[in-house]
Recover the amino acids of this structure.
């Protein structure tokens, strides 16, 4: 019998400063994740990512600066087996001051040694960033 895979389509914004990546933790959760979120019906990658980042971090991504980095898939954190997160990642410049908004309880800058604090799909992204010399 074939197992049906459910895909959760998410977008993520990569912001790295001095070899550390920006991550966020939602209220009541124990895991950090690279900021971003799910697309609303009819939204493009850019529209969804700009909306999610503004909702979570109070900053505006600059649309002309968004640059595709890569897409990663892994078992979704805290979901039944077979539920997979597909994370499409972008670089992008922003304006404003990064601070937690809406459901975000904490933001933090992590390096590779902190990988155990993030979700499975984010661990794949951490590995990829490290392999390219972007994460310390």
């Amino acid at each position: 019998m074939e197992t049906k895979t459910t895909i959760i389509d998410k977008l993520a914004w990569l912001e790295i400063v001095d070899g550390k990546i920006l991550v966020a933790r939602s209220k009541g959760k124990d895991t950090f994740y690279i900021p971003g979120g799910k697309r609303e019906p009819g939204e493009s990658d850019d529209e969804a990512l700009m909306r999610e980042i503004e909702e979570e971090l109070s900053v505006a991504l600059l649309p002309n600066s968004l640059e595709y980095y890569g897409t990663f898939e892994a078992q979704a954190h805290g979901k039944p087996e077979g539920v997979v997160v597909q994370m499409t990642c972008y670089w992008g410049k922003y304006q404003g001051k990064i601070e937690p908004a809406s459901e975000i309880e904490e933001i933090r800058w992590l390096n590779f040694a902190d990988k155990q604090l993030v979700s499975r799909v984010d661990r794949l992204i951490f590995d990829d960033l490290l392999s390219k010399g972007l994460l310390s």
